[in-house]
Protein backbone atom coordinates (compact mmCIF):
# COMPACT_ATOMS: atom_id res chain seq x y z
CA UNK A 1 0.00 0.00 0.00
CA UNK A 2 1.24 3.49 -0.84
CA UNK A 3 0.05 6.52 1.11
CA UNK A 4 -0.13 10.02 -0.30
CA UNK A 5 2.93 11.26 1.56
CA UNK A 6 5.32 9.14 -0.51
CA UNK A 7 7.14 10.83 -3.38
CA UNK A 8 8.76 9.54 -6.55
CA UNK A 9 11.97 10.53 -8.28
CA UNK A 10 11.90 12.49 -11.52
CA UNK A 11 15.14 12.11 -13.42
CA UNK A 12 16.06 12.50 -17.06
CA UNK A 13 13.96 12.62 -20.18
CA UNK A 14 11.06 10.20 -20.35
CA UNK A 15 11.40 9.45 -24.10
CA UNK A 16 14.34 9.07 -26.48
CA UNK A 17 13.36 10.29 -29.94
CA UNK A 18 13.38 13.34 -32.15
CA UNK A 19 9.73 12.83 -33.05
CA UNK A 20 7.12 15.31 -31.91
CA UNK A 21 4.98 14.30 -28.96
CA UNK A 22 1.32 14.24 -29.96
CA UNK A 23 -0.17 17.53 -28.73
CA UNK A 24 -3.07 17.69 -26.29
CA UNK A 25 -4.70 20.35 -28.47
CA UNK A 26 -5.69 19.54 -32.06
CA UNK A 27 -3.97 21.27 -34.94
CA UNK A 28 -5.85 24.14 -36.56
CA UNK A 29 -6.12 22.18 -39.81
CA UNK A 30 -5.05 25.13 -41.97
CA UNK A 31 -2.05 23.47 -43.61
CA UNK A 32 -3.25 21.74 -46.77
CA UNK A 33 -0.68 19.01 -46.66
CA UNK A 34 0.02 15.63 -45.08
CA UNK A 35 -1.05 15.71 -41.41
CA UNK A 36 1.03 14.15 -38.66
CA UNK A 37 -1.83 14.13 -36.16
CA UNK A 38 -5.14 13.24 -37.82
CA UNK A 39 -8.15 12.88 -35.54
CA UNK A 40 -11.79 11.86 -35.54
CA UNK A 41 -14.33 14.43 -34.38
CA UNK A 42 -16.32 14.08 -31.18
CA UNK A 43 -18.97 16.37 -29.73
CA UNK A 44 -17.67 19.54 -28.13
CA UNK A 45 -16.69 19.47 -24.49
CA UNK A 46 -16.47 15.69 -24.10
CA UNK A 47 -12.65 15.39 -23.78
CA UNK A 48 -11.28 16.28 -20.37
CA UNK A 49 -7.83 17.66 -19.67
CA UNK A 50 -5.50 17.54 -16.69
CA UNK A 51 -5.43 15.99 -13.25
CA UNK A 52 -7.70 18.60 -11.71
CA UNK A 53 -10.48 17.77 -14.15
CA UNK A 54 -9.86 14.05 -13.73
CA UNK A 55 -10.17 14.40 -9.97
CA UNK A 56 -13.49 16.21 -10.43
CA UNK A 57 -14.90 12.96 -11.85
CA UNK A 58 -13.67 10.79 -9.01
CA UNK A 59 -14.21 12.64 -5.73
CA UNK A 60 -17.73 11.31 -5.18
CA UNK A 61 -16.59 7.66 -5.11
CA UNK A 62 -15.20 5.63 -2.23
CA UNK A 63 -13.21 3.18 -4.37
CA UNK A 64 -11.69 3.32 -7.86
CA UNK A 65 -9.68 1.00 -10.09
CA UNK A 66 -7.12 2.55 -12.47
CA UNK A 67 -5.91 -0.07 -14.94
CA UNK A 68 -3.61 0.55 -17.87
CA UNK A 69 -0.97 -0.46 -20.37
CA UNK A 70 2.65 -1.41 -19.85
CA UNK A 71 4.96 1.60 -19.83
CA UNK A 72 2.70 3.95 -17.88
CA UNK A 73 4.60 6.01 -15.30
CA UNK A 74 2.33 4.82 -12.53
CA UNK A 75 4.03 6.58 -9.62
CA UNK A 76 4.09 9.92 -11.42
CA UNK A 77 0.42 9.47 -12.34
CA UNK A 78 -0.45 8.60 -8.74
CA UNK A 79 1.56 11.49 -7.36
CA UNK A 80 -0.06 14.13 -9.53
CA UNK A 81 -3.61 12.88 -9.07
CA UNK A 82 -3.04 12.55 -5.33
CA UNK A 83 -1.95 16.19 -5.15
CA UNK A 84 -5.35 17.26 -6.40
CA UNK A 85 -7.11 15.08 -3.83
CA UNK A 86 -4.90 16.45 -1.06
CA UNK A 87 -5.71 20.01 -2.07
CA UNK A 88 -9.38 19.15 -1.50
CA UNK A 89 -8.69 17.47 1.86
CA UNK A 90 -9.78 14.07 0.56
CA UNK A 91 -8.18 11.27 2.54
CA UNK A 92 -6.91 8.62 0.13
CA UNK A 93 -5.04 5.37 0.14
CA UNK A 94 -3.35 4.03 -2.98
CA UNK A 95 -2.82 0.30 -3.44
CA UNK A 96 -0.42 -0.93 -6.12
CA UNK A 97 -1.89 -4.04 -7.78
CA UNK A 98 1.60 -5.26 -8.67
CA UNK A 99 1.90 -6.33 -5.00
CA UNK A 100 -0.29 -9.27 -5.98
CA UNK A 101 1.86 -10.33 -8.90
CA UNK A 102 3.71 -13.60 -8.76
CA UNK A 103 7.45 -13.33 -7.94
CA UNK A 104 9.63 -12.24 -10.88
CA UNK A 105 11.21 -15.69 -11.04
CA UNK A 106 7.78 -17.25 -11.64
CA UNK A 107 6.89 -14.65 -14.26
CA UNK A 108 10.22 -15.27 -15.99
CA UNK A 109 9.59 -19.02 -16.04
CA UNK A 110 6.09 -18.39 -17.41
CA UNK A 111 7.21 -16.31 -20.41
CA UNK A 112 10.68 -17.70 -21.12
CA UNK A 113 9.51 -20.43 -23.54
CA UNK A 114 8.06 -17.72 -25.79
CA UNK A 115 11.09 -15.44 -26.00
CA UNK A 116 13.07 -17.38 -28.58
CA UNK A 117 16.12 -18.11 -26.46
CA UNK A 118 19.23 -16.52 -27.98
CA UNK A 119 17.39 -15.34 -31.09
CA UNK A 120 17.80 -11.55 -30.99
CA UNK A 121 14.57 -10.85 -32.90
CA UNK A 122 12.00 -13.59 -32.76
CA UNK A 123 9.93 -15.39 -30.19
CA UNK A 124 6.47 -16.94 -30.29
CA UNK A 125 3.14 -15.42 -29.35
CA UNK A 126 2.35 -16.06 -25.70
CA UNK A 127 -1.08 -17.72 -25.37
CA UNK A 128 -1.72 -16.87 -21.71
CA UNK A 129 -3.74 -14.21 -19.92
CA UNK A 130 -3.03 -11.42 -17.48
CA UNK A 131 -4.47 -13.54 -14.67
CA UNK A 132 -1.48 -15.86 -15.13
CA UNK A 133 0.77 -13.11 -13.72
CA UNK A 134 -1.12 -12.80 -10.44
CA UNK A 135 -1.44 -14.83 -7.26
CA UNK A 136 -5.23 -15.20 -6.77
CA UNK A 137 -5.05 -15.14 -2.98
CA UNK A 138 -2.87 -12.04 -2.88
CA UNK A 139 -5.11 -10.34 -5.43
CA UNK A 140 -8.14 -11.10 -3.26
CA UNK A 141 -6.35 -9.67 -0.22
CA UNK A 142 -6.11 -6.21 -1.82
CA UNK A 143 -9.16 -4.54 -0.31
CA UNK A 144 -10.39 -0.96 0.06
CA UNK A 145 -9.66 0.77 3.36
CA UNK A 146 -12.97 1.55 5.07
CA UNK A 147 -11.30 4.27 7.16
CA UNK A 148 -10.29 6.29 4.09
CA UNK A 149 -12.60 8.51 2.08
CA UNK A 150 -11.18 7.11 -1.17
CA UNK A 151 -9.36 3.85 -1.89
CA UNK A 152 -7.61 3.59 -5.26
CA UNK A 153 -6.24 0.36 -6.75
CA UNK A 154 -3.87 1.10 -9.62
CA UNK A 155 -1.55 -0.57 -12.12
CA UNK A 156 -1.68 -3.09 -14.96
CA UNK A 157 -4.41 -5.56 -14.04
CA UNK A 158 -6.30 -3.44 -11.49
CA UNK A 159 -9.57 -4.61 -13.02
CA UNK A 160 -8.85 -8.15 -11.87
CA UNK A 161 -9.60 -7.23 -8.25
CA UNK A 162 -13.37 -7.20 -8.00
CA UNK A 163 -13.80 -3.78 -6.48
CA UNK A 164 -16.81 -1.56 -6.89
CA UNK A 165 -16.69 1.92 -8.33
CA UNK A 166 -15.53 3.23 -11.70
CA UNK A 167 -12.83 1.71 -13.88
CA UNK A 168 -10.29 3.94 -15.60
CA UNK A 169 -7.87 2.69 -18.24
CA UNK A 170 -4.66 4.63 -18.93
CA UNK A 171 -3.54 3.83 -22.47
CA UNK A 172 -0.20 4.44 -24.19
CA UNK A 173 0.59 4.45 -27.94
CA UNK A 174 3.02 1.67 -28.75
CA UNK A 175 5.46 3.99 -30.50
CA UNK A 176 5.64 6.07 -27.32
CA UNK A 177 6.26 2.88 -25.34
CA UNK A 178 9.24 2.21 -27.58
CA UNK A 179 10.57 5.76 -27.11
CA UNK A 180 10.31 5.28 -23.34
CA UNK A 181 12.08 1.95 -23.69
CA UNK A 182 14.96 3.58 -25.56
CA UNK A 183 15.23 6.12 -22.74
CA UNK A 184 15.52 3.27 -20.23
CA UNK A 185 12.38 4.36 -18.41
CA UNK A 186 10.14 1.28 -18.59
CA UNK A 187 10.13 -2.38 -17.65
CA UNK A 188 8.38 -5.35 -19.18
CA UNK A 189 5.24 -6.64 -17.53
CA UNK A 190 6.09 -8.31 -14.21
CA UNK A 191 9.84 -7.91 -14.73
CA UNK A 192 12.01 -5.84 -12.34
CA UNK A 193 15.13 -6.20 -14.48
CA UNK A 194 16.11 -3.71 -17.16
CA UNK A 195 16.59 -5.11 -20.64
CA UNK A 196 18.07 -3.52 -23.75
CA UNK A 197 15.49 -1.79 -25.98
CA UNK A 198 15.72 -4.63 -28.52
CA UNK A 199 15.22 -7.26 -25.84
CA UNK A 200 12.35 -5.26 -24.42
CA UNK A 201 10.69 -4.92 -27.80
CA UNK A 202 10.86 -8.67 -28.41
CA UNK A 203 9.17 -9.32 -25.07
CA UNK A 204 6.64 -6.53 -25.68
CA UNK A 205 5.67 -7.98 -29.06
CA UNK A 206 5.52 -11.67 -28.25
CA UNK A 207 4.35 -11.54 -24.63
CA UNK A 208 3.26 -8.25 -23.06
CA UNK A 209 1.14 -6.98 -25.93
CA UNK A 210 -0.53 -10.37 -26.36
CA UNK A 211 -1.49 -10.49 -22.69
CA UNK A 212 -2.60 -6.90 -22.36
CA UNK A 213 -4.56 -6.89 -25.60
CA UNK A 214 -6.56 -9.90 -24.43
CA UNK A 215 -7.16 -8.00 -21.21
CA UNK A 216 -8.42 -5.02 -23.22
CA UNK A 217 -10.87 -7.26 -25.01
CA UNK A 218 -12.20 -8.50 -21.67
CA UNK A 219 -12.71 -5.07 -20.11
CA UNK A 220 -13.66 -2.94 -23.12
CA UNK A 221 -17.35 -2.60 -22.23
CA UNK A 222 -16.55 -2.05 -18.55
CA UNK A 223 -14.20 0.94 -18.88
CA UNK A 224 -15.84 4.10 -17.55
CA UNK A 225 -13.06 6.48 -18.58
CA UNK A 226 -10.25 6.13 -21.11
CA UNK A 227 -7.15 8.18 -20.30
CA UNK A 228 -4.38 9.05 -22.78
CA UNK A 229 -1.16 8.58 -20.82
CA UNK A 230 1.43 9.64 -23.41
CA UNK A 231 1.84 13.15 -21.91
CA UNK A 232 2.76 12.41 -18.27
CA UNK A 233 1.75 15.83 -16.92
CA UNK A 234 -1.16 16.50 -19.31
CA UNK A 235 -3.56 13.55 -19.42
CA UNK A 236 -6.64 13.81 -21.58
CA UNK A 237 -9.62 11.54 -21.07
CA UNK A 238 -13.06 10.66 -22.35
CA UNK A 239 -16.02 8.68 -21.08
CA UNK A 240 -16.08 5.06 -22.19
CA UNK A 241 -19.60 5.42 -23.58
CA UNK A 242 -18.49 8.38 -25.72
CA UNK A 243 -15.50 6.49 -27.14
CA UNK A 244 -17.51 3.36 -27.86
CA UNK A 245 -20.10 5.47 -29.67
CA UNK A 246 -17.29 7.06 -31.70
CA UNK A 247 -16.04 3.60 -32.64
CA UNK A 248 -19.52 2.76 -33.91
CA UNK A 249 -19.57 5.88 -36.11
CA UNK A 250 -16.04 5.23 -37.38
CA UNK A 251 -16.99 1.68 -38.34
CA UNK A 252 -19.71 3.02 -40.66
CA UNK A 253 -17.71 5.82 -42.29
CA UNK A 254 -14.01 6.59 -42.76
CA UNK A 255 -10.98 7.05 -40.52
CA UNK A 256 -7.23 7.53 -40.56
CA UNK A 257 -4.78 6.08 -38.04
CA UNK A 258 -2.04 8.26 -36.58
CA UNK A 259 1.19 7.55 -38.48
CA UNK A 260 4.68 7.55 -37.04
CA UNK A 261 8.16 7.68 -38.55
CA UNK A 262 11.56 6.10 -37.99
CA UNK A 263 15.09 6.61 -39.28
CA UNK A 264 17.11 3.62 -40.50
CA UNK A 265 20.52 2.68 -41.90
CA UNK A 266 19.22 2.76 -45.48
CA UNK A 267 16.75 5.61 -45.03
CA UNK A 268 16.16 8.43 -47.49
CA UNK A 269 15.16 12.06 -47.81
CA UNK A 270 11.91 12.02 -49.81
CA UNK A 271 9.57 11.76 -46.82
CA UNK A 272 11.07 14.94 -45.40
CA UNK A 273 9.81 16.74 -48.51
CA UNK A 274 6.36 15.15 -48.44
CA UNK A 275 5.93 15.77 -44.70
CA UNK A 276 7.71 19.06 -43.94
CA UNK A 277 6.34 19.08 -40.37
CA UNK A 278 8.69 16.20 -39.52
CA UNK A 279 11.86 17.08 -37.59
CA UNK A 280 14.22 17.84 -40.46
CA UNK A 281 17.42 17.28 -38.48
CA UNK A 282 16.84 13.51 -38.38
CA UNK A 283 19.51 11.87 -40.59
CA UNK A 284 16.79 10.26 -42.70
CA UNK A 285 13.39 8.62 -42.62
CA UNK A 286 13.44 4.97 -43.56
CA UNK A 287 9.86 4.12 -42.59
CA UNK A 288 6.50 5.74 -42.17
CA UNK A 289 4.10 3.44 -40.35
CA UNK A 290 0.90 4.55 -42.03
CA UNK A 291 -1.31 1.66 -41.06
CA UNK A 292 0.33 -1.03 -38.95
CA UNK A 293 -2.60 -1.71 -36.69
CA UNK A 294 -0.78 -3.67 -33.96
CA UNK A 295 1.13 -0.44 -33.24
CA UNK A 296 -0.89 2.50 -34.58
CA UNK A 297 -3.21 4.61 -32.48
CA UNK A 298 -6.48 6.37 -33.26
CA UNK A 299 -6.87 10.00 -32.21
CA UNK A 300 -10.07 11.83 -31.32
CA UNK A 301 -10.86 15.48 -30.67
CA UNK A 302 -13.72 17.58 -29.36
CA UNK A 303 -12.19 20.65 -31.01
CA UNK A 304 -10.37 21.78 -27.87
CA UNK A 305 -8.51 18.70 -26.67
CA UNK A 306 -7.27 15.48 -28.31
CA UNK A 307 -7.02 11.93 -27.03
CA UNK A 308 -5.41 8.84 -28.52
CA UNK A 309 -6.13 5.17 -27.87
CA UNK A 310 -4.69 2.06 -29.46
CA UNK A 311 -6.24 0.56 -32.60
CA UNK A 312 -6.84 -2.68 -30.68
CA UNK A 313 -9.86 -1.24 -28.88
CA UNK A 314 -11.56 -0.44 -32.20
CA UNK A 315 -11.11 -3.97 -33.49
CA UNK A 316 -12.42 -5.51 -30.29
CA UNK A 317 -15.51 -3.30 -30.44
CA UNK A 318 -16.31 -3.33 -34.18
CA UNK A 319 -14.34 -6.01 -36.01
CA UNK A 320 -17.40 -7.30 -37.87
CA UNK A 321 -18.33 -3.88 -39.19
CA UNK A 322 -14.70 -3.19 -40.11
CA UNK A 323 -13.89 -6.53 -41.78
CA UNK A 324 -17.28 -7.51 -43.20
CA UNK A 325 -17.31 -10.91 -44.86
CA UNK A 326 -13.77 -11.72 -43.68
CA UNK A 327 -14.44 -11.11 -39.97
CA UNK A 328 -14.45 -14.82 -39.18
CA UNK A 329 -11.27 -15.32 -41.21
CA UNK A 330 -9.20 -12.65 -39.45
CA UNK A 331 -11.00 -12.19 -36.14
CA UNK A 332 -9.59 -9.15 -34.33
CA UNK A 333 -6.58 -8.83 -36.67
CA UNK A 334 -6.85 -6.01 -39.19
CA UNK A 335 -5.20 -7.78 -42.14
CA UNK A 336 -3.83 -5.04 -44.44
CA UNK A 337 -0.79 -2.87 -43.81
CA UNK A 338 0.40 0.35 -45.52
CA UNK A 339 3.84 1.81 -44.89
CA UNK A 340 6.49 3.82 -46.70
CA UNK A 341 10.05 2.72 -47.42
CA UNK A 342 12.19 5.71 -48.41
CA UNK A 343 15.61 5.18 -50.03
CA UNK A 344 15.86 8.55 -51.87
CA UNK A 345 19.54 9.51 -51.56
CA UNK A 346 19.81 6.57 -49.15
CA UNK A 347 20.79 2.95 -49.68
CA UNK A 348 19.46 -0.47 -50.57
CA UNK A 349 17.29 -2.30 -48.10
CA UNK A 350 18.66 -5.55 -46.77
CA UNK A 351 18.34 -8.56 -49.10
CA UNK A 352 15.45 -10.47 -47.55
CA UNK A 353 12.48 -12.80 -47.73
CA UNK A 354 9.44 -13.61 -45.58
CA UNK A 355 8.19 -16.90 -44.09
CA UNK A 356 5.59 -19.28 -45.46
CA UNK A 357 2.17 -19.43 -43.75
CA UNK A 358 3.05 -22.76 -42.17
CA UNK A 359 6.45 -21.56 -40.96
CA UNK A 360 5.20 -18.33 -39.39
CA UNK A 361 2.43 -20.18 -37.56
CA UNK A 362 4.63 -23.00 -36.30
CA UNK A 363 7.63 -20.90 -35.24
CA UNK A 364 6.07 -17.58 -34.22
CA UNK A 365 2.38 -18.25 -33.57
CA UNK A 366 1.19 -15.78 -36.22
CA UNK A 367 -2.16 -16.60 -37.86
CA UNK A 368 -1.10 -15.44 -41.36
CA UNK A 369 2.12 -14.46 -43.05
CA UNK A 370 3.88 -11.37 -44.34
CA UNK A 371 2.96 -11.37 -48.04
CA UNK A 372 3.94 -8.01 -49.52
CA UNK A 373 3.81 -5.80 -52.58
CA UNK A 374 5.82 -2.72 -53.52
CA UNK A 375 3.85 0.12 -55.08
CA UNK A 376 6.39 2.53 -56.60
CA UNK A 377 5.15 5.92 -55.44
CA UNK A 378 8.20 7.80 -56.68
CA UNK A 379 11.70 7.05 -57.97
CA UNK A 380 14.71 8.58 -59.66
CA UNK A 381 15.75 7.59 -63.18
CA UNK A 382 17.72 4.35 -63.21
CA UNK A 383 16.41 3.14 -59.83
CA UNK A 384 16.01 -0.61 -59.41
CA UNK A 385 14.32 -3.17 -57.21
CA UNK A 386 15.87 -6.57 -56.47
CA UNK A 387 13.18 -9.16 -57.15
CA UNK A 388 13.49 -12.92 -57.68
CA UNK A 389 16.55 -14.93 -58.66
CA UNK A 390 18.68 -14.98 -61.77
CA UNK A 391 17.89 -17.89 -64.08
CA UNK A 392 21.28 -19.43 -63.35
CA UNK A 393 20.98 -19.30 -59.54
CA UNK A 394 22.80 -22.10 -57.71
CA UNK A 395 21.42 -22.20 -54.15
CA UNK A 396 24.50 -23.86 -52.66
CA UNK A 397 26.90 -21.30 -54.12
CA UNK A 398 24.63 -18.46 -53.03
CA UNK A 399 24.45 -19.82 -49.47
CA UNK A 400 28.23 -20.30 -49.34
CA UNK A 401 28.86 -16.69 -50.35
CA UNK A 402 26.32 -15.34 -47.85
CA UNK A 403 27.83 -17.38 -45.01
CA UNK A 404 31.34 -16.30 -45.98
CA UNK A 405 30.24 -12.67 -46.06
CA UNK A 406 28.71 -12.99 -42.62
CA UNK A 407 31.83 -14.64 -41.18
CA UNK A 408 34.51 -12.59 -42.94
CA UNK A 409 32.71 -9.30 -43.73
CA UNK A 410 33.35 -9.75 -47.43
CA UNK A 411 31.06 -8.23 -50.09
CA UNK A 412 28.68 -10.33 -52.17
CA UNK A 413 28.09 -9.67 -55.86
CA UNK A 414 24.33 -9.72 -55.35
CA UNK A 415 23.41 -9.25 -59.01
CA UNK A 416 25.23 -12.48 -59.83
CA UNK A 417 22.41 -14.25 -58.00
CA UNK A 418 19.43 -11.88 -57.75
CA UNK A 419 17.36 -10.42 -60.54
CA UNK A 420 16.67 -6.67 -60.75
CA UNK A 421 13.77 -4.79 -62.34
CA UNK A 422 13.55 -1.13 -63.20
CA UNK A 423 11.55 0.96 -60.74
CA UNK A 424 8.78 2.77 -62.60
CA UNK A 425 6.33 5.13 -60.94
CA UNK A 426 2.93 3.51 -60.23
CA UNK A 427 4.12 -0.05 -60.95
CA UNK A 428 3.11 -2.75 -58.47
CA UNK A 429 5.73 -5.42 -57.72
CA UNK A 430 4.54 -8.64 -56.08
CA UNK A 431 6.42 -10.20 -53.16
CA UNK A 432 4.64 -13.33 -51.91
CA UNK A 433 6.32 -15.27 -49.13
CA UNK A 434 9.61 -16.91 -50.07
CA UNK A 435 10.47 -14.26 -52.68
CA UNK A 436 13.94 -12.76 -52.44
CA UNK A 437 13.71 -8.99 -52.73
CA UNK A 438 14.74 -5.53 -51.59
CA UNK A 439 14.26 -2.00 -52.78
CA UNK A 440 17.29 -0.33 -54.30
CA UNK A 441 18.26 3.25 -53.60
CA UNK A 442 16.31 6.28 -54.83
CA UNK A 443 12.85 4.73 -54.53
CA UNK A 444 9.87 5.70 -52.41
CA UNK A 445 7.89 2.51 -51.92
CA UNK A 446 4.35 2.30 -50.65
CA UNK A 447 4.47 -1.16 -49.14
CA UNK A 448 1.03 -2.75 -49.36
CA UNK A 449 1.16 -5.87 -47.29
CA UNK A 450 -0.44 -8.35 -44.97
CA UNK A 451 -0.27 -6.95 -41.44
CA UNK A 452 2.59 -9.02 -39.88
CA UNK A 453 5.55 -6.67 -40.04
CA UNK A 454 8.64 -7.88 -38.15
CA UNK A 455 9.18 -11.23 -39.88
CA UNK A 456 11.89 -10.20 -42.31
CA UNK A 457 14.67 -12.72 -42.80
CA UNK A 458 17.72 -10.69 -43.78
CA UNK A 459 20.44 -12.46 -45.76
CA UNK A 460 22.75 -9.62 -46.67
CA UNK A 461 22.89 -6.04 -45.41
CA UNK A 462 25.64 -4.62 -47.61
CA UNK A 463 28.22 -4.82 -44.75
CA UNK A 464 26.86 -1.67 -43.11
CA UNK A 465 26.12 -0.89 -39.48
CA UNK A 466 22.84 0.18 -37.98
CA UNK A 467 22.30 3.70 -36.70
CA UNK A 468 23.45 2.46 -33.29
CA UNK A 469 26.82 1.48 -34.76
CA UNK A 470 26.08 -2.25 -34.50
CA UNK A 471 25.48 -4.61 -37.42
CA UNK A 472 21.86 -5.66 -37.70
CA UNK A 473 21.19 -9.39 -37.16
CA UNK A 474 21.02 -11.62 -40.23
CA UNK A 475 18.73 -14.65 -40.58
CA UNK A 476 20.38 -16.64 -43.36
CA UNK A 477 19.35 -20.06 -42.07
CA UNK A 478 15.70 -19.06 -41.62
CA UNK A 479 15.70 -17.46 -45.06
CA UNK A 480 16.93 -20.64 -46.72
CA UNK A 481 14.15 -22.57 -45.01
CA UNK A 482 11.68 -20.34 -46.85
CA UNK A 483 13.21 -19.16 -50.14
CA UNK A 484 11.41 -20.14 -53.35
CA UNK A 485 14.16 -20.79 -55.90
CA UNK A 486 11.60 -21.37 -58.66
CA UNK A 487 10.99 -17.62 -58.80
CA UNK A 488 13.82 -16.96 -61.22
CA UNK A 489 14.53 -15.38 -64.58
CA UNK A 490 11.64 -14.63 -66.91
CA UNK A 491 9.27 -16.74 -64.81
CA UNK A 492 9.94 -14.43 -61.88
CA UNK A 493 9.21 -11.38 -64.01
CA UNK A 494 5.98 -12.96 -65.21
CA UNK A 495 4.83 -13.83 -61.68
CA UNK A 496 6.06 -10.80 -59.78
CA UNK A 497 5.28 -7.73 -61.90
CA UNK A 498 1.59 -6.87 -61.86
CA UNK A 499 0.01 -6.28 -65.27
CA UNK A 500 -2.60 -3.53 -64.91
CA UNK A 501 -5.83 -3.47 -66.91
CA UNK A 502 -8.97 -1.35 -66.88
CA UNK A 503 -12.02 -3.03 -65.33
CA UNK A 504 -14.49 -0.12 -65.36
CA UNK A 505 -14.63 3.42 -66.70
CA UNK A 506 -16.83 6.43 -67.28
CA UNK A 507 -16.65 9.88 -68.82
CA UNK A 508 -13.68 11.13 -66.78
CA UNK A 509 -12.80 8.21 -64.55
CA UNK A 510 -11.60 4.64 -64.70
CA UNK A 511 -10.79 1.81 -62.32
CA UNK A 512 -7.55 -0.06 -62.99
CA UNK A 513 -6.93 -3.54 -61.59
CA UNK A 514 -3.36 -4.26 -60.50
CA UNK A 515 -3.63 -8.02 -59.92
CA UNK A 516 -1.74 -9.52 -57.00
CA UNK A 517 -0.22 -13.01 -56.79
CA UNK A 518 -2.44 -15.98 -56.00
CA UNK A 519 -0.71 -16.23 -52.61
CA UNK A 520 -1.92 -12.76 -51.65
CA UNK A 521 -5.27 -12.66 -49.84
CA UNK A 522 -5.69 -8.98 -50.79
CA UNK A 523 -6.01 -7.29 -54.15
CA UNK A 524 -5.25 -3.79 -55.47
CA UNK A 525 -7.21 -1.34 -57.62
CA UNK A 526 -6.42 2.21 -58.65
CA UNK A 527 -9.04 4.92 -59.12
CA UNK A 528 -8.02 7.42 -61.80
CA UNK A 529 -10.38 10.38 -62.11
CA UNK A 530 -10.65 14.05 -62.98
CA UNK A 531 -13.74 15.03 -61.00
CA UNK A 532 -15.25 12.19 -58.95
CA UNK A 533 -15.66 8.43 -58.72
CA UNK A 534 -17.82 6.06 -56.66
CA UNK A 535 -16.49 3.20 -54.56
CA UNK A 536 -18.36 0.22 -53.13
CA UNK A 537 -16.94 -1.87 -50.31
CA UNK A 538 -18.67 -5.12 -51.37
CA UNK A 539 -18.10 -6.60 -47.94
CA UNK A 540 -14.41 -5.71 -47.50
CA UNK A 541 -12.63 -2.79 -45.85
CA UNK A 542 -10.89 -0.50 -48.33
CA UNK A 543 -7.46 0.91 -47.46
CA UNK A 544 -6.82 3.93 -49.67
CA UNK A 545 -4.15 6.50 -50.43
CA UNK A 546 -4.00 9.48 -52.77
CA UNK A 547 -0.91 8.63 -54.83
CA UNK A 548 -1.23 11.39 -57.43
CA UNK A 549 -2.89 14.77 -56.99
CA UNK A 550 -3.00 17.24 -54.11
CA UNK A 551 -6.18 16.54 -52.14
CA UNK A 552 -9.58 14.91 -52.27
CA UNK A 553 -12.84 14.79 -50.41
CA UNK A 554 -14.63 11.62 -49.43
CA UNK A 555 -18.38 11.49 -48.88
CA UNK A 556 -19.59 8.31 -47.20
CA UNK A 557 -22.96 6.60 -47.57
CA UNK A 558 -23.77 7.75 -44.01
CA UNK A 559 -23.12 11.39 -44.91
CA UNK A 560 -19.69 11.95 -43.35
CA UNK A 561 -17.41 14.30 -45.30
CA UNK A 562 -13.63 14.24 -44.80
CA UNK A 563 -10.65 15.66 -46.68
CA UNK A 564 -7.37 13.87 -47.33
CA UNK A 565 -4.08 14.95 -48.86
CA UNK A 566 -1.32 13.44 -50.97
CA UNK A 567 0.24 10.31 -49.42
CA UNK A 568 -2.25 10.09 -46.54
CA UNK A 569 -3.69 6.63 -45.81
CA UNK A 570 -7.35 6.31 -44.90
CA UNK A 571 -9.70 3.38 -44.35
CA UNK A 572 -13.33 2.81 -45.31
CA UNK A 573 -14.74 -0.10 -43.25
CA UNK A 574 -16.83 -2.77 -44.94
CA UNK A 575 -19.99 -1.56 -43.20
CA UNK A 576 -19.72 1.86 -44.88
CA UNK A 577 -21.05 0.19 -48.06
CA UNK A 578 -20.23 3.01 -50.49
CA UNK A 579 -18.46 6.34 -50.82
CA UNK A 580 -17.68 9.07 -53.32
CA UNK A 581 -14.19 10.44 -53.96
CA UNK A 582 -14.09 14.04 -55.20
CA UNK A 583 -10.89 15.45 -56.66
CA UNK A 584 -10.03 18.84 -55.13
CA UNK A 585 -6.82 19.30 -57.10
CA UNK A 586 -6.08 20.93 -60.43
CA UNK A 587 -4.92 17.75 -62.17
CA UNK A 588 -6.28 14.21 -62.39
CA UNK A 589 -6.15 12.20 -59.18
CA UNK A 590 -5.00 8.63 -58.60
CA UNK A 591 -6.03 6.69 -55.51
CA UNK A 592 -4.72 3.24 -54.62
CA UNK A 593 -7.18 0.86 -52.98
CA UNK A 594 -6.30 -2.43 -51.25
CA UNK A 595 -9.04 -4.82 -50.19
CA UNK A 596 -9.59 -8.45 -49.23
CA UNK A 597 -10.26 -10.86 -52.07
CA UNK A 598 -13.78 -12.23 -52.12
CA UNK A 599 -12.60 -15.85 -52.08
CA UNK A 600 -10.07 -17.10 -49.55
CA UNK A 601 -10.40 -20.83 -50.19
CA UNK A 602 -6.72 -21.07 -51.13
CA UNK A 603 -5.73 -19.62 -47.77
Percent strand: 25-35%
The best one-word shape is globular
Largest beta-sheet details: 8 strands, mixed
Radius of gyration over C-alpha positions, nearest whole angstrom: 25 Å
Class from secondary-structure proportions? alpha+beta
User: How much helicity do the residues have?
Assistant: 10-25%
The number of distinct β-strands equals: 32
Identify the quaternary structure here. Answer: single chain
In what order do the strands lie side by side in the largest sheet? 1-5-6-4-7-8-9-3
Question: Given the structure, what is the number of helices?
Answer: 14
Strand and helix layout:
Layout (H helix, E strand, L loop, with lengths): L1 E2 L36 E2 L5 E3 H9 L4 E6 L5 H14 L4 E5 L7 H8 L24 H6 L8 E5 L12 E5 L2 H9 L14 H23 L5 E4 L7 E4 H11 L9 E3 L7 H5 L12 E5 L5 E5 L4 E5 H13 L3 H4 L5 E7 L8 E3 L3 H8 L7 E8 L4 E6 L5 H14 L9 E5 L5 E4 L5 E3 L3 E8 L6 E4 L15 H5 L8 H8 L4 E5 L3 E6 L7 E8 L2 E5 L5 E7 L2 E6 L4 E5 L3 E4 L5 E6 L5 E8 L7
Parallel strand pairs: 2-12, 4-6, 4-7, 5-6, 7-8
Antiparallel strand pairs: 1-5, 3-9, 8-9, 10-11, 11-14, 12-13, 14-21, 15-22, 16-19, 16-21, 17-18, 17-20, 23-24, 24-25, 25-32, 26-31, 27-30, 27-32, 28-29, 28-31
Amino acid sequence: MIHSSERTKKTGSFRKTEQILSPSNPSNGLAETYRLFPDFSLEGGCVGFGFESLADLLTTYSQIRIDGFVGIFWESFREQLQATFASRNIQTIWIDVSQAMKPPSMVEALVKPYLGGDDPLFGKRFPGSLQDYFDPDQLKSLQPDPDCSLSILYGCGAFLAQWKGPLLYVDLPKNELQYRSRAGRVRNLGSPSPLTPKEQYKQFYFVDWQVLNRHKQTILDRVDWFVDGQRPTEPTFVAGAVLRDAFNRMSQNVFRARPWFEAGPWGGQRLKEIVPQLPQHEPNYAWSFELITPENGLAFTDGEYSLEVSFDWFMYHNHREILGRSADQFGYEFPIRFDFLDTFDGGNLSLQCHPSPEYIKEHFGEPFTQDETYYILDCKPGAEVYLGFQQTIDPKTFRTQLDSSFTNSTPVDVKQFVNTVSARQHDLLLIPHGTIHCSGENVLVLEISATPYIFTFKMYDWLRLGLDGVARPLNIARAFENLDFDRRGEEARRQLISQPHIIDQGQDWRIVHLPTHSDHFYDVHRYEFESEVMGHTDGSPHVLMLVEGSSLEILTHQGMVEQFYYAETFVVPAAAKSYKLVNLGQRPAKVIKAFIKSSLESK
